[in-house]
Every structure is written in structure tokens, then in C-alpha cells.
Amino acid sequence: MTGPLHGLRVFDLTRILAGPTCTQILGDLGADIIKVEQTGAGDDTRRFAPPFIKDDNGNDTAESAYFCSANRNKRSITLNIADAEGQDLAKRLIAQSDVLVENFKFGGLAKYGLSFDQLKDENPSLVYCSITGFGHTGPYAERPGYDVLIQAMGGFMSITGDPDGEPQKAGIPIADLMAGMYASVAINAALRHREKTGEGQHLDIGMLDTMTATLSIMGANYLSTGETPGRLGNAHPNIVPYQAFATADGDMVLAAANDAQYQRFCAFAGISELAEDENYKTNEQRVRNRKELVDKLQAVISEKPTRHWLEGLEKVNVTCGPINTLEQVFNDPQVQARGMELEMPHPAAGGAPVHLIGSPIRMSKTNPEYRYAPPVLGAHTDEVLRELLGLDVGEIEGLRERGVV
After folding, report:
1. How many CB atoms lie within 10 A of CB 341?
2. What is the pLDDT of residues 109-164, one digit of tens each?
3. pLDDT (tens digit per residue) in 246-279
4. 130 within 8 A of 204, measured Cβ to Cβ
5. 307: number of Cβ within 10 Å
6. What is the pLDDT of residue 1?
7. Looking at the domain covering 242-324, what would its CATH class be?
8. Which of 57, 171, 186, 284 has the greatest number of CB atoms lying within 10 Å of its CB?
């Protein structure tokens, strides 16, 4: 293994999506992820199905596509942390780990003796990352947090959707995914701090915090003006034209991100008068006169098919593109050239490949590695207990008989 995090061990007490997203990123970069799952049940997302991955005959396996989306490059062990023996094993494994990631409800691990405060003295170099709905401080700390709730409370839904329609969540669980990504960044920063000082620390990642940070320009617009923004559908709050338009035979996105692109668009479209009109000449004026201009552009764009616009505007260096279905995305030559569809042989599929989305990270020296397909439940329990704790076959079988693993 040559990944930049090769040699790093992560004790992974996460489930669902935010935490597993974080640890999958670390695993792709070379870390050894020990995914701890509930004995007999495993990660909840193993049951978030259908769809299931297919075997080599095209039949459903028992492995959900949802679970596979965020659990590549991990070794799965089953461990009953509600049992005293299980807690002891967990502590012994944590002592051999660099990072612990968990997304239990605030305070949930304290009853098992596995909170940061309970572990830090014996493990002073441990980087301990908690991912919760609302963080470990504040009046909402003890509340559970779920993606759609966080999208709603974090303001995301209020600015998403058609202006005259209802608030909309994203088509993907954006609050979970962003929390996982922020957590992976924080962990790498904490590891750099440890490298310099020898000190571990507690990382407190709240999903509401990350959703608020994700408001980005919309949040900054509000803080700068005090004006609560509404929904703009597919439009941009600060650039016009920068949105979807209907063509004669479909839809496309036009993103004329500066005055020069807007002028070139108008010249190609045969509406140079709109480029010189004082109401639309600069982006500031186009934003102020958004509705009138968009109506005029829509009337022109709808007269020609999508191909006319895409091919013609590309030649004059105006940003535009199709609105692809997922089938079109994964068949796109650019997506294929970048290796974004990944196939890995999966034991539950009889060796047939599971189809996954690859990492978007590209590094000239240490690219992501794909070592383990998403594991079946407990597939690596014996291996990990032998390798890290030196337990023999009889000891492991005894633990299994007592329901500890």
C-alpha cells in the first residue's frame, strides 16, 4: 500500500452515512479502517434496500447498494460493546489505533466507557472525532439529527426549489455527506497537530454547523444585507444568466459567468441588442433586471434544439451543458476517462463486481487505493482479533459463543 495515510489505523464506530463517508475517505487514502458493527445486525444501512447488489447471475444478494456506497476499504468486525468483555476488547483495539470516529448520539458512548473523556488519559495521542446532529454543546446537543431534519433546520430547504413551489431537500443526503467530508478534513488537521506536538484531541463535528457553513454565498448574502433570500429554482443569486433553460427539444444549463461570456452568447444567439442594452450590459444590471431578461432569453433559446446551443456556444467559449440523467453521467466520456465508475469483486456476489463511485481525489504521487470491497458483516473479525490482539482460534470461538463478537 502506498496511500498517504498508509499505516494509520482508524477505529470506526460509525453507521448510516455521515460517519461512514468520513471513514471511507480516509480508507481510500490508505488508512486501515476497522469498522465495528453490532453483533448480528450490523450497520443499519445493510437493511436500507432495495436495491441490492447483484450476483454473477444477475440476482439480488443480501448486500444493499446503500451500504456499499460508503463502506469501501474497510475491515468489518462484529463487537458487542454493551458487554463488559466487548468493552475491554474495544479499549484494547483503540489503544492500537490512531483515530476513533463515532456518530453516536451525544453522550451515547459514555455508558460503555468509550467517551473521549474516559479514553483520553490512557490514549493521550488519540484523535477522537464525534459526528452528531447538533454537536456536543448548545441547547440542542442531546437531540438526534437526521439528514432531512438538518437540511430543513439549516436553511438549505428554504433556498432550494421553485420560487412558487414548496421548499425542497437536495436529491442526495447533502447534510450527511458534508459532515463526513468536514470530519475527514478535521481529522487530517488533527493528525498534523499530533505529528508536531504528540497530542491527540477531540473533534466535535455537528451536522447543523456543517449545513450552516454549506450555505456559503447565500448565507453571506443574508449576513451582508439582512434580507432573507427566497428560492430561485435553478437560478444563481448573484449571476445572470446562470440557470437552466428549455430548448426546442429538451433542457440545458447556460452559465454566462461574466460580461464577456454574456456578450458572446448574445452575438451567437443573434440578439446583440441585449448585450448593449443598459439594463443588461453588466452583471449587476442583469441581476437587478433578472426576470425581464430571463424571459427574453428563454424565448430565444426555446427556438433551437439543445445540440445547436451546446455545439455553437462551446465554439465561442460560453459555458453551457446538458442536464444529464444518471445513465448519461456514467456514460459520459469525461466521467469514464476520470475513472469515476469503479468495479470491485465482491464475495457476496460470487466474485462478480460491485459497481461503486470512485474517489474524486487525484494526487500525482499517492492516488487513492481500492483494497477492500464493502465487507459482508463481520468478515474480518477473526483476522483483526488475531492480527491486533494476538487471540487464537479457541479464544475467538469462546468470544463468539458468549455473544461478544
Report:
1. 14
2. 999 999 999 999 999 999 999 999 999 999 999 999 999 999 999 999 999 999 99
3. 999 999 999 999 999 999 999 999 999 999 999 9
4. yes
5. 14
6. 55
7. alpha beta
8. 186
Domain with CATH 3.40.50.10540 in the chain: 9-214+334-401
Query: pLDDT digits over 89-115, tens only?
Result: 999 999 999 999 999 999 999 999 999
Report residue 221 as a C-alpha cell. 448574502
Say how far apart CA 54 and CA 68 lie, in whole Å: 12
Nearest Cα to Cα of residue 28 among 364, 362, 385? 362
| Neighbour-count burial of 285, counting CB atoms closer than 10 A to its CB (0-12 exposed, 13-18 middle, 19+ buried) | middle
- Report the relative pairing of strands 242-246 and 60-64 from DSSP bridges: unpaired
Provide the β-strand partners of residue 77.
36
The CA distance from 257 to 235, in Å, is 12
Other beta carbons within 10 angstroms of residue 165's beta carbon come to: 10
Q: What is the three-class DSSP state of 352?
A: coil
At the fourth CATH level, the homologous superfamily of domain 9-214+334-401 is Crotonobetainyl-coa:carnitine coa-transferase; domain 1 (3.40.50.10540)
CA 378, 380, 382, 384 torsion-angle sign: negative
Residue partners of 37: CB distance under 8 A and separation at least 6: 15, 43, 76, 77, 78, 79, 377, 378
- Give the residue from 178, 26, 47 showing the smallest Cα distance to 98: 26
Q: What share of the chain in percent tops pLDDT 70?
A: 100
Q: Is 205 helix (H, G, I), strand (E, B) or coil?
A: strand
Ranges of CATH 3.30.1540.10 domains, the chain: 242-324
Closest CA to 117 of 42, 200, 53, 45: 200
Length of the chain: 405
Residues with catalytic annotation?
Answer: 176
